[in-house]
């Protein structure tokens, strides 16, 4: 066998361990990147979940305040009811609407002048509030009145005997 072929064979033989080491290093680096990406995804998930929890807690407090207000508890259309809901919405860009609905899903009071005749009786969040759920997070939807992607929150409106007489609702822009 010629000397050049032997030399080439020895060089290739010497490179095999280096190639194996390089492949192992690449594999370890890929696994480390994968772990880092997983850890970053978990961090972002926790961040988003925390933000959603703050939105849900804020919604629950807002609905409790709405349900406790005398103008809404009266359960009848009034300028005081509309004015109170309008004040709640002022200064919060992400709050699209605040409403009081009767048991049939008809709007009694609204924080913003909206399309008349909107009925929410078929919406799941409204039905759950009428069934007595203390706090309801609706499904992602396109608002009937606003036409915008939104998330609805609702709570039952109770009279002095604790009977459910309607529902308070607010809509959050998504």
Key terms:
51% helix; alpha+beta
Distance between the termini: 76 Å
Number of strands: 5
- Report the portion of residues in β strands: 15-25%
What would you call the structural class?
A: alpha+beta
Summarize the structure.
The protein is of the alpha+beta class and 174 residues long. Helix content is 51%, strand content 22%.
Topology:
Blueprint: H1 3-68, H2 70-73, H3 79-89, E1 95-102, E2 107-110, H4 124-130, E3 136-142, E4 149-158, E5 164-173
Antiparallel strand pairs: 1-2, 1-5, 3-4, 4-5
Describe this structure in words.
The chain is of the alpha+beta class. Strands 2-1-5-4-3 form a five-stranded antiparallel sheet, with helices on both faces. The longest helix is centred in the N-terminal third of the chain and has 66 residues. The termini are far apart. The mean pLDDT is 89.
């Amino acid at each position: 066998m010629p000397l050049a072929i032997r030399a080439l064979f020895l060089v290739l033989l010497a490179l095999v361990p280096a190639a194996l080491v390089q492949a192992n290093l690449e594999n370890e680096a890929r696994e480390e990147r994968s772990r880092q990406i997983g850890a970053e995804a978990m961090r972002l998930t926790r961040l988003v979940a925390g933000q959603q929890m703050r939105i849900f807690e804020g919604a629950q407090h807002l609905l409790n305040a709405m349900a406790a207000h005398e103008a809404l508890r009266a359960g009848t259309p009034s300028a005081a009811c509309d004015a109170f809901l309008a004040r709640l919405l002022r200064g919060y860009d992400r709050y699209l609407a605040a409403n009081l609905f009767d048991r049939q899903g008809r709007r009694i009071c609204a924080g913003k002048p909206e399309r008349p005749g909107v009925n929410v009786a078929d919406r799941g969040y409204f039905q759950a509030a009428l069934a007595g759920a203390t706090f309801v997070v609706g499904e992602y939807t396109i608002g009937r009145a606003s036409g915008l992607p939104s998330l609805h929150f609702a709570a039952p409106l109770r009279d002095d005997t604790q009977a459910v007489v309607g529902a308070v609702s607010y809509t959050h822009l998504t």
